[in-house]
Design a protein that fits this description.
Helices cover 65% and strands 0% of the residues. The chain is mainly α. The chain has one domain.
Length: 214
């Protein structure tokens, strides 16, 4: 009585509770999500706060981005050599590059390569910032991987359409780029976190299409 039954041919949905494999447990998990969402800040600062950065730090936004990438990379190498994890990281990240460093290096690359194109750089960065946590939380809630990917696609499409309306992002990119973002989220490549793939794949495609966008 009260037991859930499966219809013929229906596969059970496995609930993935990332809090169990996150350093710091539930608090660490939510810190990880908060950090992920806060990734929307650096692109805004890069594109719209360059003068303020140079005035306050006496270096350009490009130099600051480079410094941040180098610091993250060096810190990650040291962390992996010492075999440690910090609060918010997954336990398996003790022996592979973390989502944080993949996100920092990939986002930094997007910003430096598309430095003069916020209409292209911002939707790439914002899509992974908001769509990836949505997909993860859907899976954690017991939603099937397929439907979680659809959720990721919907959020990504909303981001690209919003950027098309507000920044002049070519509207023809919205649907294919949202698809690519969702597709790259569910890629499973050894040592490559989806924080990396969800920005690297769209960046490469945008660079290929860029000659046709003018």
């Amino acid at each position: 009585m009260g037991e859930k039954t499966m219809e013929d041919g229906e596969l059970p949905t496995s609930v993935v509770d990332h809090a169990q494999t996150t350093v710091g447990g539930r608090a660490g998990h939510y810190l990880r999500r908060l950090t992920h969402v806060s990734m929307c800040g650096p692109p805004l600062l890069f594109y719209y706060g360059r003068e303020e950065v140079q005035s306050a730090l006496h270096i350009t936004a490009f130099q600051l981005t480079s410094i941040v990438m180098i610091v993250f990379l060096v810190a990650e190498i040291i962390r992996m050599r010492m075999n440690i994890t910090v609060i918010g990281q997954r336990t398996y990240e003790v022996e592979q590059p973390s989502a944080l460093v993949w996100g920092a290096l990939s986002m930094g690359s997007v910003l430096l390569v598309l430095a003069d194109s916020p209409e292209l750089g911002l939707p790439i960065c914002f899509a992974v910032t908001f769509a990836d946590p949505v997909a993860g939380e859907l899976r954690r809630a017991g939603v099937s991987s397929k439907n979680a990917t659809i959720g990721c696609f919907v959020v990504s499409l909303f981001v690209w359409m919003l950027c098309s309306w507000s920044l002049g992002t070519p509207w023809l990119l919205c649907l294919p780029m949202a698809f690519l973002t969702a597709w790259s989220e569910q890629l499973r490549i050894s040592k490559l976190d989806d924080n990396g793939s969800m920005m690297i794949v769209p960046l490469v495609v945008v660079l290929m299409l860029r000659p046709w966008l003018s």
